[in-house]
Structures are given as C-alpha cells and as structure tokens.
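Issue 218. Parser rejects a valid record. Input:
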Amino acid sequence: MKIALAQNIAVKGDVEKNIAHHLMHIKNAVERKADLILFPELSITGYEPELAADLAMELDDRRFEAFKDIARSENLVIVAGAPIRSGEGQKPFIGSIIFIPNGTTRLYIKRYLHEDEELFFSSRSSMDQIEHMGQKINFAICADITNPQHPKDAARDGCNLYLASVLIGQKNIDYEVDLLRTYAKEYGMTTFMSNYGGESGGYISGGRTGAWSKNGEAIEELEHLESGLIVIEV
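Output the parser choked on:
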C-alpha cells in the first residue's frame, strides 16, 4: 500500500482555491500510484478558527464531488480537513473527511481540542478506524496526538497505520514528531503526519511532513517548508 502525504499551503478561507490545490496534489499522488492521500488539519479552509462557523460545511457539499469522483475512478482514499456543521446553534467540529473508493464518505472528528480552540469548536468521539487493502487505519487531528489515550485506543483496536492531520508550529514540531516516533515504537504501528507548508491562522508551520516506522525510525520527512508531496510504501 502506498500512502501520499501532502504538505500544502492554504489560502485563508478560500475554499475553491484550496480545493484546486488539493486536486493538484491528488493528481501527483495518482501519477505515483498512491492508494491513500492525507492532507493537514482543516486543509480545505486553512486553520482559521475565527472563520470556522461561517465556513463550516456539510458532508454532502457539492464542492466535494470532485474528490468523490477521483476516489471512485482511481481507487484512492482521500482524507481532507474541514470545519463540519454540528447542528443548529452549535459550534462546528474539526473534521477529517474520508472519501472512500466505493462512493461512501466517512468522518473523523477531532476528539481532543486545544484550550483556545474550545471557543470556536465542539468535539466528540466518532469513527476511529477504516480497513483498506488489508490495513487497519486510524486517524488523528493535531491535539489528539498530545493525549496518550488516543494512540493507546488505536493500538487496542489493532491499528497498523496511524495517520495524523496537523497544524504544528515551529516551536512544537520537534516535540510532536518525537511523540509520533514514540507511539510507532511503543505500539508497533507505522505513524504518519501531514503538516502545513506555510503560515495558517497566524502560525508558521514547522513542516516535517513524514512517516515513522514500527521501530521508531524516520522513513522519510519533508525538510523544506513549502508545498510538497511524499509517497510512503508500507
């Protein structure tokens, strides 16, 4: 199985332009015969908490049709991030939308919020795992990986591949990469991270999109801080 990790740069609040950027990365991933592509946290809107309520989307949003079509035609799982409407008068969720090749759409909701996110977002437990090409795949969004219960639950459920969509700034990037490396070694599951390649929401990303093997060693990381794509075979 080949997993593509996108390190993209979002345009603040511009869904159409950001989707166009996603499609460029997806085209690259298809050309490199990837089976799954992972994007950063809130990749479709950018990490913009103050705008999230206005930008919040439904899973059946017509703008997702291109993702659904490619997922079906290319047998590709696409994992993209967006604020998701949670109900009348409620704060939106931070979601990873998972477009499955069989035409279905799944949603992972960020379970653990940073304290400053609680003003803008809601959280809850949601689906944690999909199975694809014989692999058990669990998803995480940013602060999820700082709570040790999250990867522990994934390991309990037999996770092989632990995929984190994040916006991690330069100040914290080394610490959180070390967390993913530690989880990989402790639980025997390959870990992956898709981070931004530039500024979003006032944060300068730390980059380092990459993957870490079951023994905790780096498989590959993007060292440069810009848009890029790596493909990892597992």
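Fixed in the parser; the record now loads. The longest helix spans residues 15-31.
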